Amino acid sequence: MTYVVTESCINCRYTDCVSVCPVDCFREGVNFLVIDPDECIDCGLCVAECPVQAIFHEDELPEDMRYFLTLNERLAKKWPSIYHKKDPSADAKEWENVAKKLHLLEE
After folding, report:
1. Residue 26: strand, helix, or coil
2. Which of 4, 102, 1 is nearest to 61 (CA)?
3. Cβ(16)–Cβ(50) under 8 Å?
4. CA 103 vs CA 18, 38, 58, 62, 106: distances in Å
């Protein structure tokens, strides 16, 4: 089992979740984070740290977000690990409540 980063993270890229991860399972893209399902130990510490509620346990992933399970797995193989909290995107606050951002994802 794994946790999954979803659409709310796009263009926000808060990294509070990274700072609590005991196994360094987060990967960083230009405007999005993903969780490597092969590294995630299913601890759930990251969920409470995400200010935009972008992280779900795969069993609790809403049906319309199931795509993000596969997306996290695919991008985790391409993107580098992130080990420490960084500043969010400069305009993160403006993107927090914007829906339907998948087309903005930079792979």
Report:
1. strand
2. 4
3. yes
4. 24, 26, 22, 19, 8
For the four alpha carbons of 90, 13, 86 and 82, in that order, the dihedral sign comes to negative
Between CA 10 and CA 101 the distance in angstroms is 6
* Amino acid identity for residue 40 in this structure: C
Tens-place pLDDT, residues 35-87: 999 999 999 999 999 999 999 999 999 999 999 999 999 999 999 999 999 99
Question: E strands of 2-98, at which residues?
Answer: 3-5, 26-28, 33-35, 55-57
Closest C-alpha among 91, 17, 83, 29 to residue 55: 17
